[in-house]
Amino acid sequence: MGSLLQIAARGADSAALARTMEAALAAVERVDRLMSFHSDESELTRLNRDASRGAIAVDPWTYAVLRRAVQIAGLSDGVFDVTIGALLVERGLLPQPKGCASGAGNWRDITLLPGCRVLFQRPVLVDLGGIAKGFAVDQAIHALRRGGCSDAIVNAGGDLRAFGTQPRPIHLRRRAGLVPVAELRSGAIATSTPYIERSEQIGCIVDPRIRHAWHGNGSVMVAARSCAVADALTKVAALAGPACKPLLARFGAQAYWDVDP
User: Fold this and answer.
1) Rounded alpha-carbon distances, angstroms, from residue 225 to 101, 162, 168
2) Of the residues 71, 97, 120, which one is the last residue of a structural domain?
3) pLDDT tens-digit series, residues 51-72
4) Is residue 137 part of a domain?
């Protein structure tokens, strides 16, 4: 998913811990295999190519991510919209997937049917980059818990989740370097940073309402119980600002808007 993945865990049995770490990695790889926009073989690409012609059965993980994405899109009135893929392709931030129409719809065109089936009411290009990485972190954490780890943290490019008793310092990146802003013992945190001209365009947040990139003057950090929720809500917090606090509260989440002087 274009990010450096870091996993640290503690357990009583070293052999069991090694197997559990492998299971956590396998969970992340499964999410990437299912939901990559860049892979012609991913389930997401198959949806973008075929779901406007008829309902398609998908993996329960893909269905769960789409369900959460549609929920947050509705609650944010489309500030978070995973059908932004066509706009990102147009801006050169994503490649045009083979065999897929560009699409001109929005999140309302995604219909979730019983039996993990998905139908697009008209052609759209769904990009799950704003939520799937957080979901992958969640699945890795679940694998570590099932494996009996007593303490663990998973960090995928700033989207992280931890459990245990050990407090961990959380940093934000400013022009002057890393700045400590909080400690995390249990829960999830996701961070989004603004697009800067002439910099790498990975992770650019584009506002679907005005079709422009977010140019903030600092980072946005959201803390929530799950990393998928935190990941998605950082985009809402970045684009809507403090006005989104009631929405954050519905998920038990909090945001921190950092100003880079």
Assistant:
1) 36, 10, 16
2) 120
3) 999 999 999 999 999 999 999 9
4) no
